[in-house]
Design brief:
mainly alpha, binds zinc ion
């Protein structure tokens, strides 16, 4: 069974992260890894090929939300945010993503309809 991290979260509860290597702390709490974490955060989302591909696909207005979600992930792990706060933020971000997705589908559908032969179809638009 994996050893649990020896650190205490900001809410006073013990960290449930698994110890990595021979250390006493999880990746999020190991003081020796502080520099690596900072460096990884700076590089993360910038250099990885997947992140680069996603970056091109994402609407610019969604990028800050993605960055926020990565921060929230780490803060829930270290205890700076409660799991409930993390869940609430993730739910709101999910709602935003679904609205964007609906907009993208609507746009594609309109483009498809524009390429089909003219018909007697009526333009159906979402109203607010
Ligand atoms: Zn920990």
């Amino acid at each position: 069974m994996a050893t649990l991290c020896g650190a205490t979260r900001k809410d006073g509860s013990p960290c449930m992260g698994k110890v990595h290597g021979d250390g006493r702390f999880c990746f999020g709490h190991d003081p020796d890894l502080q520099e690596r974490r900072t460096h990884g955060r700076q590089r993360g989302g910038e250099n990885r090929a997947t992140a680069k591909r996603l970056d091109r696909l994402l609407p610019a207005s969604l990028k800050p939300t993605i960055a926020l979600l990565f921060t929230v992930l780490e803060e829930v792990h270290t205890g700076a945010l409660t799991p409930a706060q993390g869940t609430a933020i993730a739910a709101l971000a999910g709602a935003i993503a679904r609205l964007y997705q609906a907009g993208i589908v609507e746009e594609r559908l309109a483009a498809l309809e524009a390429t089909t032969a003219p018909s007697d179809r009526k333009d159906v638009r979402w109203t607010s």
